[in-house]
Design brief:
The structure holds two protein chains of two kinds. Chain A has helices at 6-14, 20-37, 43-60, 70-90, 101-104, 117-130, 136-147, 152-159, 163-182. By secondary structure, chain A is mainly α. Chain B is built from eight helices and six strands. Chain B has a five-stranded mixed barrel. In chain B, helix 2 (19-54) runs antiparallel to helix 4 (76-93). The A-B interface holds A 13, 18-19, 21-22, 25-26, 29, 47, 50-51, 54-55, 58-63, 103-106, 153, 156-157, 160-165 and B 1-2, 4-6, 8-10, 14-19, 21-22, 94-95, 97, 100-105.
Chain lengths: 183, 222
């Protein structure tokens, strides 16, 4: 039997079938914990935060447009939750700067390019090893692209940055990653 | 985790917000955006209209000293308010994909250009003139004060209505009925181009005898 799509499950939850929400939690719990842990949260913190993410997603589920993909919507909630938690923890803005030049003027033409499957697997392996050596602003797009398999536009929707900036950060992130491996 | 979440939902500790909550929120944001947008158009078009009324708008036609007159005559307070409204509007809009998908480097100039074009269009209509006429006739408070422009002298700009044309200039009377003789420096302007009854802004300094040695004149209300 075909597995129900996330969007169909979300639509069922919107109609009041809240048991279906557990299906979404089951599907996304490991991904969300992985995402949280890459934000430098330890396992316990990550679990607490992810629980908050799901609670927020449930509260806001009626604002979800079922004609769009569910995962970028959920990752946006998670991104906000994790950034706020980081801010609280550090009591400062941390790596979240008000002005980013590559957001204001992404001057390189960074179009979406498809890496081959082998390349993708290589990059994923590299990411697993060296992700923490990369600055935060390059780390998140790389995570969302290679592990969560979101496209440029979806990453732009999660991070609220221009699509071209996503391309540039992925390009630079990949270059940094390769450099850290060769060093 | 799944059990905790489902428990929270089943016990009613966690409740789904109704759709109308999001609809009202969206409508509220749209209303705020529309109000800010209209306010911005009104304010900038008003600044353009006020600068025309005071004659300051035309000052740069007369070189460097004209530019300094323009800088001194700009309503900096209103411009600051307009800038705050613009930042606020851009900040609200930046939450929406139509805006954040594009770099601010392209979006901001396009947005400012759009606001300026709209403001120039409004300033070119008789809208502000109509409001000015209405507020003057009806003595409307607050808005009426807003439309009270400088009608006398301010620095090197002198405003008034031509009451007589002379051989080398003309006589103007300001709103308080004070008359001044305007003398044209040779080759600066042709007196034939001006007629009695026209409202003018005269650019020039007063001589010791009280006359104005004009280096430029612009008709501000025919």
């Amino acid at each position: 039997m075909d597995e129900r799509k996330d969007e169909a499950i979300a639509a069922a939850v919107q109609r009041g079938d809240f048991d279906s929400f557990s299906e979404l939690v089951e599907r996304y719990e490991p991904k969300m914990i992985r995402y949280a842990r890459r934000f430098l949260f330890d396992n316990d913190d990550a679990k607490d935060l992810v629980q908050d993410v799901f609670i927020k997603a449930y509260v806001k589920i009626k604002s979800f447009d079922i004609d769009r993909r569910f995962s970028p919507w959920l990752y946006r909630i998670a991104h906000n939750e994790f950034v706020n938690a980081l801010k609280k923890r550090t009591k400062e803005r941390g790596n979240v700067s008000l002005f980013e030049f590559d957001v204001f003027f992404p001057h390189l033409a960074a179009k979406e390019t498809a890496d081959s499957r082998t390349q993708q697997n290589e990059l994923r392996a590299m990411l697993e090893k060296s992700l923490n050596k990369i600055p935060e602003k390059y780390k998140e797009p790389l995570m969302l692209y290679y592990f969560e398999e979101l496209d440029y536009k979806e990453i732009a929707d999660v991070l609220h940055i221009p699509v071209s900036t996503v391309g540039i950060r992925l390009q630079r992130g990949k270059a940094m990653l390769k450099k850290t491996i060769t060093e | 985790m799944k059990e905790n979440i489902i428990d929270a939902i089943k016990t009613g500790k966690t409740k789904m917000r109704p759709r109308w909550f999001f609809v009202i929120r969206t409508v509220f944001v749209i209303v705020i955006v529309v109000i800010l947008f209209l306010l911005l158009l009104y304010l900038i078009s008003f600044i353009i209209f006020a600068l025309h009324q005071s004659g300051v708008w035309f000052a740069p036609d007369y070189g460097l000293s004209g530019w300094s007159l323009l800088l001194a005559g700009l309503p900096w307070g209103l411009l600051a308010v307009a800038l705050i409204l613009l930042i606020l509007l851009a900040f609200i809009l930046s939450r929406y994909p139509l805006v954040y998908h594009y770099p601010p480097f392209y979006f901001l100039p396009a947005f400012i250009l759009f606001i300026l074009l709209g403001s120039f269009l409004i300033a070119a209509t008789s809208f502000h003139e109509g409001v000015l006429r209405y507020t003057t006739q009806e003595n409307v408070p607050v808005i009426g004060n807003f439309y009270e422009f400088e009608t006398g002298d301010s620095g090197s700009i002198h405003r008034g209505e031509i009451i007589a044309v002379t051989q080398n200039g003309f006589l103007i009377a300001n709103e308080n009925g004070i008359t001044s003789t305007v003398v044209a420096a040779p080759g600066v302007f042709f007196v034939e181009a001006f007629h009695v009854g026209e409202g003018v802004a005269v650019f020039g300094d007063r001589e010791s005898d009280g006359s104005i040695r004009a280096f430029g004149v612009k008709i501000i209300s025919p």
